[in-house]
Amino acid sequence: MSRTFAVGDTFTLVRTCDAYRPIYYAAASGDFNPIHIDPKVGAEAGLGGAILQGLCTLGWAVDAFIGYLGDPGRVSGVKVRFSRPVSPGDVVTFSGRVTSVENGKLVAEIAAVNQRDEDILKGAVVEGRV
Hints:
alpha+beta; single chain; 5 strands
């Protein structure tokens, strides 16, 4: 069954950052920066406590795109600007919209907000092969 993709298509993914997510991600990525795994260090750095690694947040954004695209092997590019860190307890909603489909290439923009409607990502662009 062939799938069609169109400009204006949308997709959404909601993820909750549980208290252990920065630790799990540190174990998987090797990013043991203390601001991610020690709430005291994160607070002393002015972050209000430990924060999730940015690349984990980016991974969630790409996961939203993969859910729409249907195949992680078809993701061909990602550009992102982080606006605010994700903290344990945050619920992040990723909202994407397809902006271009041509010559076998699909481009979508993704925005992400937390439960307080604060921007987490703005202007993220993901590309895939269709």
